[in-house]
Amino acid sequence: MSQVKESIEVNVPVRAAYDQWTQFETFPEFMDGVERIEQRTDTLTHWVTKIGGVEREFDAEITEQIPDRKVAWVTVGGDTEQSGLVTFHPIDPSHTEVTLLMDFDPDGMAESIGDKLGFVDRQVKGDLKRFKHFIEDRGAPTGAWRGEV
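Now predict its structure.
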C-alpha cells in the first residue's frame, strides 16, 4: 500500500471549501484523469477515470462525513483499491487549509514505477491547485450537501 498526503491553502471560508468538495460530480472540472463521477446515493459515488492511458471504473463509499471538517471514503468493487480522507481546517474566517490523505494499491509494474517516481504525489498536488483555482475563481460553491455520515 502506498500513501500520499498533500495540503493547500484556499482563499475561501471553510464552509465554501467543504461545500464545493461535496459536489463530487464537479471533480472532472479540476481533477486530471477523472472522466465522470455519478452520485448514486448520499454515500455512494461511481467513478470513471483514465490516467496514463489506463481506464478504470469503480465505486467509492463515503464512510465518514462531518460538515466543514472531513470526508472519508473507501473504494468498493472494481479493480481499484484506495481509501482517503480530506480535511478542512479554518485558518481564519476567509482562508482554509485543505489536506488530502490517500492510501492506494498500485496495480501492476507500470503503476508501481509511476508511484515510486512520484507521479501520484504530483497528480494530487496538481488536483488540489486546480481545486483552489476552481473555488476561488467562483467565489462560492456550485452546491452543497450538509448531511453527516
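The longest strand covers residues 54-66.
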